[in-house]
Automatic annotation (TrEMBL):
Regions crossing the membrane: none
Residues covered by the Response regulatory domain: 4-131
Keyword Phosphoprotein attributed: yes
Keywords: Phosphoprotein
Modified residues (4-aspartylphosphate): D64
Stored Pfam families: Response_reg
Cited InterPro entries: CheY-like_superfamily, Sig_transdc_resp-reg_receiver, TCS_response_regulator
Native source organism of the sequence: Noviherbaspirillum galbum
Highest taxon in the source lineage: Bacteria
Gene Ontology BP annotations: phosphorelay signal transduction system
SMART domains attached to this UniProt entry: REC (SM00448)
UniProt-listed PANTHER family: RESPONSE REGULATOR RCP1-RELATED, TWO-COMPONENT SYSTEM REGULATORY PROTEIN
Name recorded for this polypeptide: Response regulator
Amino acid sequence: MTKHLLLIEDDEVAAYVTLNVLKACGFINVVDLVRDGVEAMAYLTCQGIYSDRKSGNPALILLDLKLPDLDGFEVLKQIRTLPALFAIPVFILSASETAEDMYRSNLLGISKYLVKPLNMDEFGAEASKVLSSTPPQLH
């Protein structure tokens, strides 16, 4: 079964680069892209424009911290409080290298914190580990 990934990224260039890194790492997956935290939560909870989405939960969420409307920390908090979502692995993809952002992310249960620009080898290895061990999740 194909594993779905969710990329939550508001910057068009960063999204393009991340999608190309995924492709270069050999991931044959479906990647859905949302542009802000509110849209991400609508996607994950199948609400609003995503009320007809039936593809199940993503196998991996790639989350930027600096998002409009609802930032990455708030998205992560909501993911971790919803029983249908709390077990989904989340990679933070952020330009921030601050210890505070890394610490807050780890407290919220991330799987990996990766600093942009992405190191393709590290990203590929970490994503492969998660995707090979994560069964598809359904709502």
